[in-house]
């Protein structure tokens, strides 16, 4: 072809055959069609684009290879309490809130469930965080570590962004709570480390209205609480 190419000749030949066949058909069925002037250049550019795309795909696969991590519940530092807040959304769109507060030894300090209504998953997560903070505030804790399993919620309340317009009012309420005279840090945690709060959120979906408060651990989640205290782990596949 009179062209100094470094790409694999076999691929170049395959591309050339494809283009020659395509140009021939267009000439046969379209009287106004004419082949490109620099036919070899057209083939080479297509081959280069293909090679770059394949290299990018290979690089992406190498960077984002899946790996397995072991997830478990971890207690807060001494002097702090940990609020695990979660939401549960049924198939019909009804959502409930569940929140659990525990101390540095894993001891139960309080729990609650609430039916919220029909909302999107994102708004439901915001409701869960808001209700959890208000519950912790009512118990007069001053140093609180909060775990939510929604990365989007954690990011929006920890930044100056407003996020989706649907949850903007809730975000503003959460930020006003965070600005009060207490120390609150919000972290993201995987759902596998939030099983107790998730169970109470499921219970919240079954309520018709109002709150249910739990001064002691409900018998229905005793096993989950015990597994957390023992440090049981759950495997989760993530991108490395």
Produce the secondary structure layout.
Elements: H1 9-29, H2 39-63, E1 66-71, E2 81-89, E3 94-102, E4 108-118, H3 121-138, E5 143-148, H4 151-157, H5 168-178, E6 183-188, H6 195-206, E7 211-214, H7 222-230, E8 234-239
Parallel strand pairs: 2-5, 5-6
Antiparallel strand pairs: 1-8, 2-3, 3-4, 4-7
Helix pairs in contact: 1-2, 3-5
Overall description:
- The chain has a six-stranded mixed beta sheet. Strands 1-8 form a two-stranded antiparallel sheet.
- The chain has helices spanning 9-29, 39-63, 121-138, 151-157, 168-178, 195-206, 222-230, and strands at residues 66-71, 81-89, 94-102, 108-118, 143-148, 183-188, 211-214, 234-239.
- It contains seven helices and eight strands.
- It folds into two domains: 9-63; 71-239, Ribonuclease H-like superfamily/Ribonuclease H (Nucleotidyltransferase, domain 5).
- Strand 2 and strand 3 form a beta hairpin.
- The protein is of the alpha/beta class and 240 residues long.
- The protein is elongated.
Summary keywords:
24% strand; alpha/beta; 2 domains; six-stranded mixed sheet; single chain; Ribonuclease H; Nucleotidyltransferase, domain 5; 240 residues; RNA-DNA hybrid ribonuclease activity
Largest sheet: 6 strands, mixed
CATH topology type of the largest domain? Nucleotidyltransferase, domain 5
How many DSSP helices?
7
Q: Evaluate the radius of gyration.
A: 28 Å
Q: What's the order of the H and E elements?
A: HHEEEEHEHHEHEHE
Architecture of the largest domain, CATH level 2? 2-Layer Sandwich
Low-confidence segments: none
Helical percentage = 40-55%
Oligomer: single chain
Total strands:
8
Strand content: 15-25%
Integer average pLDDT = 82
């Amino acid at each position: 072809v009179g062209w100094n190419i470094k790409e694999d000749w076999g691929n170049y030949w395959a591309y050339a055959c494809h283009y020659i066949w395509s140009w021939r058909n267009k000439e046969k069925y379209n009287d106004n069609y004419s082949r490109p002037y620099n036919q070899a250049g057209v083939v080479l550019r297509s081959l280069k684009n293909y090679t770059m795309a394949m290299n990018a795909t290979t690089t992406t696969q190498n960077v984002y290879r899946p790996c397995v991590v072991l997830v478990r519940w971890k207690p807060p530092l001494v002097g702090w309490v940990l609020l695990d807040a979660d939401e549960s959304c049924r198939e019909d769109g009804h959502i409930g809130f569940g929140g659990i507060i525990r101390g540095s030894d894993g001891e139960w300090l309080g729990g609650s469930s609430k039916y919220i209504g029909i909302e999107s998953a994102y708004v439901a997560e915001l409701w869960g965080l808001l209700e959890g903070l208000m519950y912790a505030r009512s118990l007069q804790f001053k140093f609180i570590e909060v775990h939510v399993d929604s990365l989007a919620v954690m990011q929006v309340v920890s930044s100056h962004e407003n996020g989706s317009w649907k949850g903007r009012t809730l975000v503003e309420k959460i930020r006003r709570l965070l600005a009060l005279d207490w120390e609150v840090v919000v972290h993201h945690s995987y759902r596998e480390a939030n099983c107790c709060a998730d169970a109470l959120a499921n219970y919240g979906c079954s309520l018709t209205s109002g709150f249910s408060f739990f001064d002691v651990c409900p018998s229905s989640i005793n096993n989950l609480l015990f597994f957390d205290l023992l440090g049981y782990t759950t495997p989760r596949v993530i991108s490395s």
